[in-house]
Amino acid sequence: MPIVELQIENLRSISQLTLRPQPGWNWLLGANGVGKSTVLEALHLLATGQSWRRGQRQLIRDGAEHYRLGARLSDSIAEFVGMRRQGEEREIARDGERIHSAWELLDTLPLQAWHEGNAHFVSGTAEERRRILDWGLYYADRRYGVSLREYRQALRQRNAALRQGLPPEAWNAAVIRLGERIQDQRSIHVEALQLHFQRIWSTSPQADQEVDFVLHPGWNGDLAEALERDRSIDQQFAYTHSGAHRARLQFRVQGRAAAEQLSRGQLRLLGIAFRLAQIAVQRDAGAALPVILIDDFAAELDSRARRWWMQELQALQTQIFAAGTEPPAEPGDTLFYLHAGQLIEEMQ
Ligand SMILES: Nc1ncnc2c1ncn2[C@@H]1O[C@H](COP(=O)(O)OP(=O)(O)OP(=O)(O)O)[C@@H](O)[C@H]1O
């Protein structure tokens, strides 16, 4: 059980809240606007250093000067993670030591989050799907984070050269070498995902739909040739148009784009099976299982789909935080009832 205590101070509508979560399911319940998503957001901030909200919505509670978050952990490489934000200043500390890069947080508290920004990644942008894929691979292959960081750095340098009107070729070798390495790592990972995905999907209520996914590397043919071909367009837009940063994961139903064939609920289920497969691959690789956050658990799913998802998650034996307006009918859950940013009742 990774999280044994969560402390929140001045985050959105919550002035002060302490929760003591249990292993397994932790439900955050209450009417709209009581602060359920805010609790999940606090966990997301602590685990990734980032809000899941796009754009700068105000996270510090109105009238307050700062927010402060803390999580006591067990079964982890650290016992306490804390974060404080005041204006533009943010401090993150792990066991009392300051952390300077959000990358360092990722290994402290692996977290798979379902929220408004990614719940529809299957039919969302290529970037959203790439981010989801990279999340899974980061934990399944310990070398992947290094490849990704090095590639991003080479790409930044190439794009900076393009912006300054300098020839970008000096950076091609690094972009090609690292881009191809990333594609190799992603292809192996996608193959492993396919196996688990098909097994998981075959137990889902939508198993009669023939679905799969393919990965396009982000360039056509050979990467060196693609960079050569793109030279003038890259210079015109001061941007590298081919490379691992343009990879596209595509979901298909009988060979056609899933987003055009399936309903929103079916697409959500497809995304759920994919993300369950990611955890199965991580488990095969011996990685620590992530804590799972699910905002608006019931959204768009019928009762069979909800039951199936719950059973699949239950089987993982990891810690889960789910927000909803209605309690589930499952024994062994912990229910936290919120009202106006406060915990009003806790039931086991
Ligand atoms: N900076 C802020 N200061 C005070 N209140 C805020 C701030 N930002 C957002 N809020 C309020 O916080 C409340 C809680 O929002 P939250 O998204 O956590 O609710 P929720 O319980 O998840 O609701 P829902 O079931 O509708 O998703 C909202 O009413 C929102 O207006």
Automatic annotation (TrEMBL):
Record's GO cellular component terms: cytoplasm
Binding-site residues, ATP: G30, A31, N32, G33, V34, G35, K36, S37
GO molecular function per UniProt: ATP binding; single-stranded DNA binding
Keyword tags: ATP-binding, Cytoplasm, DNA damage, DNA repair, DNA replication, DNA-binding, Nucleotide-binding, SOS response
Any one GO biological process: SOS response
PANTHER family per record: DNA REPLICATION AND REPAIR PROTEIN RECF
Function as written in the Swiss-Prot or TrEMBL entry: The RecF protein is involved in DNA metabolism; it is required for DNA replication and normal SOS inducibility. RecF binds preferentially to single-stranded, linear DNA. It also seems to bind ATP.
Family: Belongs to the RecF family.
Name of protein: DNA replication and repair protein RecF
Species per Swiss-Prot/TrEMBL record: Igneacidithiobacillus copahuensis
